[in-house]
């Protein structure tokens, strides 16, 4: 019988340098917003325009609290499982280091190219989110831009990396195969239910205001486009390929989860609401990118580390809630569905 990995309490976790640095970074982001924002933020956020900067900080910290509670719940639900050793799924350390640096450079190049190509077409830069996601946008987003965004991201961050690494590594080594389907399905159901209820209570998504015809067309369209443009790219690039390599290089689950959150945040650098027209606006944009995406990116990593299955976060905490649940009205508007 395989021995269980050692358990670490909260005190031991808080003594880890990576956790301390993450906490300092989070607190610093809060302080920066209070110091720089003044009475209003420079972002085009139609769905949250009435909130003050302090109100947005409260929202961000409550979202972090929810993620921490979901993390505790995930640990409780997986405590009796034989946990996978993801570090063993990565190559030896020197190879893992080269592959990690290559992937990060490749991801940065993908963001740069996505910026250039989208600007040439007169669109918003291609990042991990389509313009108008989550916060909304007053800018017009065309069907052509939506399809091009999804196609670009799917090819650059999912198809090409998967083809490259699948030639060298098995599906299990890339976290693409479940080691316990029943347990994974149960975990997906619990997390999806909780996250859906939270999204409904907090965001009051306009999905429920759509007509039956709009819902029948808009929900599958939203699911498909965001699966291609956001969910699968994040899953393959970060949680299938990078997470085992982060763990091999750091030897720390906590550091791996934090790096997963930071990488997920970085892929949203071109969100349509970010403003880099002045140093102050740039600092606020970076702060809110961290406050918005760091915690969800970490929780996706937690689900992957605890199950060894990158598909778990897809169904539990990305494709359906929030994207299909929250962004269906946006797609109905973009494609002018009646």
Automatic annotation (TrEMBL):
Keyword Transmembrane helix carried by entry: yes
Claim: Glycoprotein is one of the keywords in the record: no
Keywords, sorted A to Z: Membrane, Transmembrane, Transmembrane helix
Residues that span the membrane, as ranges: 21-38, 58-78, 99-126, 146-165, 186-203, 223-242, 249-270, 282-303
Protein name: Uncharacterized protein
Originating organism: Micromonospora craterilacus
